[in-house]
């Protein structure tokens, strides 16, 4: 691989290790909130995942909602002739590990408030010590 750019240039570079799969799978992150969006909007989001993604990433989703939505994504993919059996799904989860439970909680709250903005995130913590 050779690159001549404004800030970096290199020539005859080989990126290792090579990926196992021929293409990096694209998981589309989407977590439409049921109480904020109507069914047609949620449906468009799930269809977009089925059309353009190789999988789905979500967070703060109940098991039942996850099951229903992932089933719909796979149905939409199958309807488009895609192999839904190859679709992946995962949950986005932030974890803070610390020997001191209170310190871990403070660090997690600080991070989430800094990242998302104060007052924008409801947080449920289960800290494993």
Fold blueprint:
Blueprint (H helix, E strand, L loop, with lengths): L2 E2 L4 E2 L16 E3 L9 H14 L2 E4 L4 H17 L8 E4 L9 H16 L13
Parallel strand pairs: 3-4, 4-5
Antiparallel strand pairs: 1-2
Helix pairs in contact: 1-2
At a glance:
The chain is of the alpha/beta class and 129 residues long. It has helices at residues 39-52, 63-79, 101-116; strands spanning 3-4, 9-10, 27-29, 55-58, 88-91.
Number of helices: 3
Write the H/E string, N to C: EEEHEHEH
The averaged pLDDT comes out at 86
Helix and strand composition category: alpha/beta
Uncertain residue ranges: 125-129
Q: Strand order across the biggest sheet?
A: 3-4-5
Quick one: overall form? flat
- By DSSP, the count of extended strands is 5
Compute the separation of the termini in Å. Answer: 46 Å
- Give the DSSP E fraction (strand runs of 2 or more residues): 5-15%
Describe the largest sheet: 3 strands, parallel
CA radius of gyration is 20 Å
Helix fraction?
25-40%
